Amino acid sequence: MGTTTLLQQLDALTTEIVDQVPLENLIPQIGTSGLGFETGYCKAGEEHYRFLYHISNWFNNETIFEMGTGQGGSALCLAQNSTNTIITYDVENRFCIAKPDNVECSFTDYLTDPRLLTASLIFFDIGEHDGVLEKQLYDFLVVNNYKGMTVWDDIHLTDGCKEFWNSVTKTKRDITTLGHASGTGVIIFE
Ligand SMILES: C[S@@+](CC[C@H](N)C(=O)[O-])C[C@H]1O[C@@H](n2cnc3c(N)ncnc32)[C@H](O)[C@@H]1O
């Protein structure tokens, strides 16, 4: 799917559609991790899990990149279309749920992975959220003429993140009402 179509799909997405995502189906895989995928939890505008699960089906036979694996909840949601390959980066292994076969965990510097620029979707969720690593990745994607869709967590959390988000000149949407309460942004690199 091209970036224009992705933007149209994004603009048509509603909280009602996101809240229909059957997150509770993943409970057997999250076990006792405490991620809270029970019915009624992680609604659109509270957490980004249903949104990520939903958009995983906008991509087929594609590479999806994630920065900030954490316990693996977002990787699990992004992996719901099994035709896609999820490459998820962290600095330490905190993955504590059943790992789907189409998820690969990595622990080196994501900017050195040549597959990054081939990813159709990139989800950035690194815990520091001071805007520095966000800006570094954004600039890297601009300089390298990246084409695709990117999702950024916590864009309203800190002054650094707000400054980063306000500085973005590419096509962008604040989709916090569909994602995480601390701010979710989408930047389309056309
Ligand atoms: C908020 S958690 C990720 C949560 C996960 N995306 C989710 O929604 O379920 C942030 C993660 O970023 C990781 N992290 C911090 N610095 C990093 C770096 N330089 N590269 C990759 N991951 C990093 C932390 O170890 C932590 O596990």
The largest beta-sheet arranges its strands as 3-2-1-4-5-7-6
Mean pLDDT score: 95
How much helical structure, as a percent, in the residues? 25-40%
**Could you say which small molecules are bound to this protein?**
S-adenosylmethionine
Strand content: 15-25%
Q: What is the CATH architecture descriptor?
A: 3-Layer(aba) Sandwich
- Helices, by number, come to 7
Which secondary-structure class do the elements indicate? alpha/beta
**Measured distance between first and last alpha carbons:** 12 Å
Report the sheet with the most strands, covering strand number, pairing sense and barrel closure.
Answer: 7 strands, mixed
Low-confidence stretches: none
Rounded to an integer, what's the Rg over CA atoms? 15 Å
CATH topology: Rossmann fold
User: What number of domains?
Assistant: 1
Morphology call:
globular
**What would CATH call the homologous superfamily?**
Vaccinia Virus protein VP39
